[in-house]
Amino acid sequence: MTDHTGPPKGDIKFMTPFRIADDPPPSGPIPAVRQPEKSPAERAIARFSLAGKKAIVTGGAQGLGLVCARALLEHGVSCLAIFDVDEGCGARALNHLRGLDKNNEWKLLFQSVDVTNEGAVDKAVESTVQSFDGIDILLCFAGITECKLSVEYPIDSWRRIFDVNIHGSFLVARAFAREIIARSGSGTIVFTASMSGYIVNQPQPHPAYAVSKAGVHHLARSMAGEWVGHNIRVNSISPGIMNTRLTAGPSQAELRKLWLERSPMGIGDPEDLTGAVILLCSEAGKFITGTDIKIDGGFTIF
């Protein structure tokens, strides 16, 4: 073991500098209309259009990830790859999406991927890029949670939460960014954090989950700062209590009562996430990076 505590040996690596932007022309009393040749309705559609974009969604075989993957397709994404460890859910997700593709316009792929496996992640991203001839969008929804008291938390369980939620997000985002940089392209990444990264939820204890999601917030900011010079925007969303199979059923009845008492707007629907996701992936969000959007129905106000 070395006792060296000084700066790293060799060349110190710095972030890629971002380009100094041109000073925009001064705006007149009435700002110019972008794309004046289009009608107002056409401009409205174009603002949130993802026409022709190609995307990867991790954890996209069910729940929140599948709903947001579907929204990408609805807004024009032409090629979509779902990464998930559950092959059965992956097959059902593809069947569901193909059933919505009445004109057979979408190219859909499923890859069984453990996001904590560095080699598997790199291979899956590379093969997806080859199949799609490029990539533009990454949504990271792969994540796990569990409720345990800190005094009783087994360290292996704690590490597993971080492996999936933090390390898995890092590995997929890194592989995605490498492909964008190699092609001198541009792209956008949206991580899934949580309101638990801001607050300590009560009464259910999940310290590992909450700390990992706070880490996702800063992972997004760190990558945004590092990759802005490569035309890659990185943001995150922080859902509140959402109506999924994890929050439903008789076993959750008492907790749901408490959540409803504490959440000004109640419990969210998975579709409530899609507006922010489309914003961050589209032209409408082209000046947004390093930002987290809370979608919690006001839960963290109080």
How many domain units? 1
| Cα shape | globular
Radius of gyration: 21 Å
What does the oligomeric state look like here?
Answer: single chain
Residue share in helix: 25-40%
Q: The CATH topology, please?
A: Rossmann fold
Keywords: NADP, Oxidoreductase
GO molecular function: oxidoreductase activity, acting on NAD(P)H, oxygen as acceptor; oxidoreductase activity, acting on the CH-OH group of donors, NAD or NADP as acceptor
Family: Belongs to the short-chain dehydrogenases/reductases (SDR) family.
InterPro entries: NAD(P)-bd_dom_sf, Sc_DH/Rdtase_CS, SDR_fam
List the keywords.
Rossmann fold, 7-stranded parallel β-sheet, globular, alpha/beta, 302 residues, 13% strand
What can you tell me about this protein's structure?
This is NAD(P)-binding protein. GO terms for molecular function: oxidoreductase activity, acting on NAD(P)H, oxygen as acceptor; oxidoreductase activity, acting on the CH-OH group of donors, NAD or NADP as acceptor. InterPro entries: NAD(P)-bd_dom_sf, Sc_DH/Rdtase_CS, SDR_fam. Keywords: NADP, Oxidoreductase. Helix content is 38%, strand content 13%. Helix 5 links the parallel strand 4 and strand 5. It starts with 39 loop residues before the first helix and ends in a 7-residue tail after the last strand. The model has no long low-confidence stretch (mean pLDDT 94). The protein contains eight helices and seven strands; from the N terminus they run αβαβαβαβαβαβααβ. Helix 4 runs parallel beside helix 5 and helix 5 runs parallel beside helix 6. The chain has one domain: 3-Layer(aba) Sandwich (Rossmann fold). By secondary structure, the protein is of the alpha/beta class. The longest helix is centred in the middle third of the chain and has 28 residues. Strands 3-2-1-4-5-6-7 form a seven-stranded parallel sheet, with helices on both faces.
